[in-house]
Automatic annotation (TrEMBL):
Pfam families cross-referenced by the UniProt entry: Mrr_cat
GO BP of this protein: DNA restriction-modification system
Restriction endonuclease type IV Mrr domain residues: 229-339
InterPro entries: Restrct_endonuc-II-like, Restrct_endonuc_IV_Mrr, WH-like_DNA-bd_sf
One term of GO molecular function: DNA binding
Gene3D superfamilies: 3.40.91.30, Winged helix-like DNA-binding domain superfamily/Winged helix DNA-binding domain (1.10.10.10)
Protein name as it appears in the record: Restriction endonuclease type IV Mrr domain-containing protein
Organism: Sphaerisporangium album
Classification lineage: Bacteria, Bacillati, Actinomycetota, Actinomycetes, Streptosporangiales
Length: 469
């Protein structure tokens, strides 16, 4: 592979169901990432209809229709599944060989060729490192601005299955001897600094990533796993919910909740949450540490609509008790992922309210909502890319203009389901507005009227003007 090919690999693997939500599995039963792909390919057999495959996945993995759509989008881009006719899919020619037991390293090499920051991870695990450290490396060293804890964890899972990476403890990973040897057979992407020469400064480039609350995430991990610095942990949790858009106040003390969060919206939309911060030196909040009676009192006292408990992890029975008491248990790592996703695709407080109301499916519901936001952002980026390509074409077909129909056709294989007319129209209306001033629209045709770099600067500037402390 050439460096240009490595830089153009896909950024996101996406949603791969691991399967403990199905009635057909034990409550704590989950598959590894590789085993999940193996099972999905097996379910397809020699080919099946989309509806039948959806029913099989619902039974096997317990996933919703929205999750199935996200899964299909991810699965097709792995190169393991292909569409053979309308709404009919089958394993690709190499799929069974790639997912067979014993071929985990072959699968890793295949995924490295398709996704950013895959084999490159091995070069940065000579000393044990955390997921968040690897995310920073992906962004700073390789310009992989969409890197997230979830995406890096998924890559690490595949590499672990192949015996190329091993877990040191619950946070850190390191490369194995086999992993070091494996990298010698891969063509790896060079750091961004080594590839700057020759890049067209006017062309489409990734905008600088939004300010990720790295310090807050670091504090959550530091103070949430010691069991002694409860006040520091409470303050970190308050900062985390402030980043999500709440007016968050650290209270603490006897008879009061640790954090009170208020969504400052119109009267009918306004809501309150209380957050109990539980630090634990053992890495797990014990059953006796969560007082549901006290949480009910705090909820009543602060006139809260929702109750959240944040901790490193939770004793198994706590999860059932929490659901019975309408309390959301939020792991520190899940909160860190939420903050990272929110920094790139902020979720409106009204949508967060809807997610808080779904106690049993809170995490899955949030994941689906952020996937929808990410899809919209990626679709907007690709529309800009297509408009740029049409504008700089030395022999443009139509004076640099492109139609919605051509956009949908060009992107039909990149998104599952394919972009709808409404989705594209909404984004074009946004990009054509005088404030954004990216596109000019005439009689159903659209033309780029500024460089993508200027567009990124304009949007960043608007964000800076709107931002409040």
């Amino acid at each position: 592979m050439e460096q240009v090919d490595l830089r153009n690999r896909r950024a996101l693997i996406g949603y791969i169901p691991r399967g403990n939500a199905s009635d057909n599995r034990d409550g704590d039963s989950t598959l590894t990432a590789t085993a999940a792909l193996r099972r999905l390919v097996a379910l397809l057999a020699d080919g099946t209809g989309l509806e039948e495959f959806g029913e099989q996945c619902s039974s096997e993995f317990g996933i919703s229709k929205a999750s199935f759509t996200s899964m299909m989008h991810a699965l097709r881009h792995t190169g393991l599944v292909e569409q053979t006719s309308f709404n009919h899919f089958a394993p690709s020619e190499d799929a069974h060989r790639l997912v067979d037991e014993g071929n985990e390293r072959l699968l890793a090499a295949h995924l490295h060729a398709r996704y950013l920051f895959f084999g490159e991870i091995l070069c940065h695990l000579g000393k044990s490192a955390t997921t968040s450290t690897l995310v920073a490396v992906a962004k700073d060293v390789y310009g992989y601005t969409q890197a997230s804890n979830g995406e890096v964890r998924l890559r690490l899972s595949f590499l672990q299955d192949a015996g190329l990476v091993e877990r040191v403890d619950w946070q850190r990973f390191r490369v194995t001897a086999a992993g070091r040897s494996f990298t010698k057979n891969l063509t790896l992407q060079l750091p961004v600094g080594a590839e700057l020469e020759g890049i067209d400064p006017a062309g489409p480039q990734s905008a600088p990533p939004a300010s990720v609350p790295a310090a807050v995430i670091a504090q959550l991990r530091q103070y949430g796993n010691v069991g002694t610095d409860s006040r520091d942990f409470e303050e970190a949790v308050a900062q985390a919910f402030a980043f999500l858009g709440f007016q968050a106040e650290h209270l603490g003390g006897s008879g009061r909740t640790d954090v009170l969060g208020i969504a400052q919206l119109a009267t009918k939309d306004r809501y309150r949450i209380i957050v109990d911060a539980k630090s634990s030196g053992s890495g797990q909040v014990a059953e006796s540490d969560v007082k549901f009676d006290a949480l009910r009192d705090h909820k009543r006292k602060h006139k809260a609509d929702h109750v959240v408990v944040v901790g490193p992890d939770f004793a198994p029975r706590l999860k059932n008790w929490a659901a019975e008491n309408e309390v959301i248990l939020l792991r520190i790592e899940d909160l860190a992922t939420l903050l990272d996703q929110h920094s790139r695709n902020p979720m409106p407080l009204t949508e967060l309210r809807d997610a808080f109301s779904r106690i049993d499916t809170f995490s899955d519901d949030l994941a689906e909502r952020y996937q929808a936001l990410e899809r919209r952002s990626l679709l907007m980026r690709r529309i800009i890319d297509l408009a740029f390509q049409e504008a700089v074409d030395e022999d443009p077909v139509d004076d640099g203009y492109i139609s919605v129909e051509n956009i949908i056709y060009a992107l039909r294989k990149e998104f599952t389901p394919r972009p709808s007319r409404q989705e594209v129209d909404e984004l074009i209306a946004f990009l054509s507005s005088p404030v954004v001033a990216a596109l000019e629209s005439t009689k159903g045709r659209h033309k780029l009227i500024d460089s993508p770099r200027n567009l990124a600067l304009r949007l960043a500037g608007l964000g800076g003007i709107v931002a409040t402390s």
